[in-house]
Amino acid sequence: MNDPICSSPPDEGAIPPEPAVDAAAEAQIVAMVHRFYDLCLADDLLGPMFRAEIPELEPHMAIVADFWSHALLGTQRYQRGTPYSHHTHLRVEEAHFDRWMAFFSQAVGEVLPPDLADKAMKRAAHMTISFRMGLLPLPEPGART
Q: Among 20, 43, 113, 115, which residue has the fewest nearby CB atoms (within 10 Å)?
């Protein structure tokens, strides 16, 4: 008998159990990440930065796929902190964010089903706002934006 009064409380620091893996969704996320990197690497603005910053592409894309699996499916493989902390050294401008978001939107739209695509775009929009606030210089006081 499972008596709730006598049972132990849950371990607050425990990592929650991994959700049941949806193999099709996982494969779609991997395909989306590959499509996104294909677009970025072929681009004249993002390509040079990506090639300079990512010496080993396949392991990097696996980490990014783990992040999106975590964000979209709740898996626990991504254990590397916030993505922002891994990008603070980059010298980026507004155009980089615009291009990143355009390519991400294209890859998501081409590969993910509508429910995952919507969730991915909402997360990416939130991340873009946070990254812009942290990585772009503040406008001069009184400057028009």
A: 20
Domain count of the fold of the chain: 1
* Residue 65, domain member (yes or no): yes
Q: What is the pTM of this model?
A: 0.75
Q: Which of 45, 35, 26 is nearest to 91 (CA)?
A: 45
Residue 14 lies in a domain: no
Task: Find the domain containing 119 and state its range.
Answer: 23-135
Q: Would you call 52 exposed, middle or buried from its count of C-beta atoms within 10 A (0-12, 13-18, 19+)?
A: exposed
**Is residue 103 situated within a structural domain?**
yes
Instruction: Give dist(CA 112, CA 32) in Å, integer.
Output: 7
Residue pair 108/68 in contact (Cβ under 8 Å)? The answer is no
Higher pLDDT, 19 or 99: 99
